[in-house]
Amino acid sequence: MENFYDIIIAGGGPAGLSAAIYASRMGAKVAVIEGMAVGGQAALTPKVENYPARENASGFEITYDMQKQAESFGTVFVYGSIEKVSLKDDVKAVFLKDGSLLKCKAFIICTGAISRKLDVKGEAEFTGRGVSYCATCDANFFKEKTVIVAGGGNTALTDALVLASLSQKVYIVYRGDKLRATPVLIQKAQENSRIEIMYRTKIVELKGDEKLRSAILDVNGVSKEMPCDGIFVAIGYIPNSEVFKNEIITDDSGYIIVDKNALTNVKGVYAAGDVTDGTLKQIVTAAAGGALAGENAGKFVMEINK
């Protein structure tokens, strides 16, 4: 395998694919490293209604087309897991777990973030069949339905308010006795007749058949089965930045800090998508961030190659 590239992109989700399109179109020699399948978490979304000009496409279809577009400009896809990196020198080194070593002039981190899970029985089984981690993505599928939002922070209450505009009833389930959201969001949720807040409550099991039908709740120590059509998990994200932390600056939560040009604190190293702390975690915002990173990394390499 040829191992020296102008630009290496870690992550083949929407941010990484968009970065590849922009960088390779500028004539850079680009490789995308992806652990398993291209598309990231977006590829697992069965139906996407809010990606511009792609009505009712699946996440797989959108990211598949992005991959083919990147390949048409010469992007190479390398399948493997990154074990460690060395990014502070002019030549960046990427070590894969299979023993491969790849080098580049510029490096773009697009490794995304994963939603924190409830870790309860039935969660994995009903993901995509009632369990969701994105109200912005999936609220429209629950018109006039009964849903539960798990969490007590800003994301949970924002999700509940979005859902309340469509759903018949929204229960906010929170294990604590005081919400962690901003006062204005708490007030809006408390004043919304479709929202009911359940304190000292946690989800312990999800049940159903081909779809989610109910949740087993622990309400202050008492077990209760609540019929519902959907569960929206809003208990935070974990950025996939651990392997890069010794090389670049992240915030306290592990999100990579970038400037307006998608540049990290290290020359020639960029980041985009959910691994940076964007509040709206969507395909379109990831693609936009990737475009910025790919464009600027391409310009950086062009200056070096003069």
In short, what is this structure?
The protein is α/β, with parallel strands linked by helices. 25% of the residues lie in helices and 28% in strands. The strands form 4 sheets. Strands 1, 2, 3, 4, 5, 6 and 17 form a 7-stranded mixed beta sheet that branches.
Q: Can you give keywords for this protein?
A:
306 residues, alpha/beta, seven-stranded mixed sheet, 25% helix, 28% strand
Overall average residue pLDDT: 94
Strand content: 25-35%
Under CATH, the homologous superfamily of the largest domain reads FAD/NAD(P)-binding domain
So how many helices?
A: 7
The geometry reads as elongated
CATH architecture of the largest domain: 3-Layer(bba) Sandwich
Which H/E pattern describes the elements?
Answer: EHEHEEEEEHEHEHEHEEEEEEEH
> Class by helix and strand content?
alpha/beta
- Termini gap: 26 Å
Contiguous low-pLDDT stretches (5 residues minimum) are none
Q: For the report, how would you describe the main beta sheet?
A: 7 strands, mixed
Number of strands: 17
CATH topology of the largest domain: FAD/NAD(P)-binding domain
- CATH secondary-structure class of the largest domain: Alpha Beta
- The number of domains is 2
- Determine the fraction of residues in helical runs and give it as a percent range: 25-40%
Radius of gyration: 21 Å
